[in-house]
Specification:
single chain, about 230 residues, Rossmann fold, six-stranded mixed sheet, 6 strands, binds 2-phosphoglyceric acid, phosphatase activity, EC 5.4.2.12
Amino acid sequence: MTTLLLARHGLTDLTGPVLAGRTPGVHLSEAGRAQAAALAGRVAGVRLDAIVSSPLERCRETAEAVAEGRETDVRIDDRFIECGYGEWTGRPLTELAKEPLWQVVQAHPSAVTFPEGESLAGMQHRAVAAVREWNRTLGSKAVYLVCSHGDVIKAIVADALGLHLDQFQRITADPAALTVIRYAPLRPFVLRVNDMGELRLPEDSEEKDGGENITGSDAAVGGGPGTT
Ligand SMILES: O=C(O)[C@@H](CO)OP(=O)(O)O
């Protein structure tokens, strides 16, 4: 079972008030750098077979903080880049909330294509395809970290939960929070969502699926003795 650690980048000066999107040159703020360093500390005890990042600076800087002191270089995968928000890019959230499309983004995201930009469904498709390919490339024993963006992480989690994209606004991905998904042949197991605590994954933990591990994908009826 391949274990994926999904990390959202740390804070930037734009995070919150402005939809940064793919705007170039948006770096971590001082608070964001502190969050990235703290994230590195929270996963310090976890073996990482690969560290992958969106090409945008705020993710690369977060991923590089995690890579510091490890023998693993950060690898860039464009499929983890922020959703293409098109003409919404760089606009204040308070202004965007008055657009008619805002309500569709809230209630029916699978129908949304941003003006001159990408659809949320297209974003989910390319990000999930990237996860599946990394899972295949790294193999079933691998543990790897991907640093990406809020909507991208939420879309990957929705897929792992078997949720339609229209439910993805129910999921939260805060700056520098970790989400952990273990991909078994028959289903993903979502182990952590939006977690800010220390992560420990014992070396043999991939052998556990919560239950008897009869097929490598079975879920334990009743919940089992624990997954990590
Ligand atoms: O401001 C946000 O919430 C957007 C900006 O693109 O997402 P993220 O910060 O995850 O890149």
